[in-house]
Amino acid sequence: MLLTNQRLDKLAAVRADFVERGMVPPSFVPVPDKNSDNDDRDAEETDEARVEGNVVLARRRERSYPRLAADLAVHIKVPNFPDLLASFLLDQLSSDRYLDEEASDDDLDISEYILSVYHSAVATFYAPSDPSGIRGMRRERIRSTPAWRKHGPRRDCAFVVENQDERGFRGMSVVRVRLFFSFTHDGVDYPCALVDWFKKVGRSPDPETGMWIVEPEMKGRSRLTTIVHLDAFLRGAHLIPMLLNHSM
After folding, report:
1. Region (Disordered) spans which residues (predicted)?
2. If both were cysteines, with which of 41, 65, 74, 188 could 117 make a disulfide (CB 3.0 to 4.6 Å apart)?
3. What is the band of 6 on the pLDDT scale with cuts at 50, 70, 90?
4. pTM, whole model, 2 decimals?
5. Using 50, 70 and 90 to split pLDDT, how confident is the model at 40?
6. Which one, of 100, 105, 123, lies nearest residue 44 by Cα?
7. Is 124 helix (H, G, I), strand (E, B) or coil?
8. H/E element, 222
């Protein structure tokens, strides 16, 4: 069965190539764009080469958003977005030792950077215990869109790796994606996300359910919001609300 599926995939790829070259008429439904926002599927199996996790932005940017940081801040109603962007870039450059240790946000002029906004990103990861391809790989879409199927906004959550030396969720956190976007600095592309953070409750999973409990992380009276590079993302996360019983 696996060999048959592989051969069918190869035949489909060859036929798509022949249609593109004009060698055969396009008399069949084309293969869908795996990174297209028009795909309503949230997850599927894939036979890609094994990687622990890889997340990339959708291929097409959304054209209804402003391109400059100050204008985008007004559009998404996050007034400090330019400051968050400057802090993110400073952190990226400092980690790469491009800047002097005494550099600050004021040394970076991000006002003219051209930003591209996306409504989703595609995560490919190794998950042999889930429905997956022949190499144990699975692909899923992480969405952050103001309108999903005409039922209001959808802001997915995701796992972010903070410490690769820790096993499992101990080395990760959960974030909610408010915006996927990218920009270029000195010829380097930075795919990233504006996120709200969650923090762990306790140092171990809940003894009754075996699952970790998280809660919104606050900074004063507001949610802790930062910008994170997409390289830190692992895959989507699904949170289950806790319904507390209040005695009368």
Report:
1. 26-50
2. 65
3. low
4. 0.75
5. low
6. 123
7. strand
8. strand 222-223
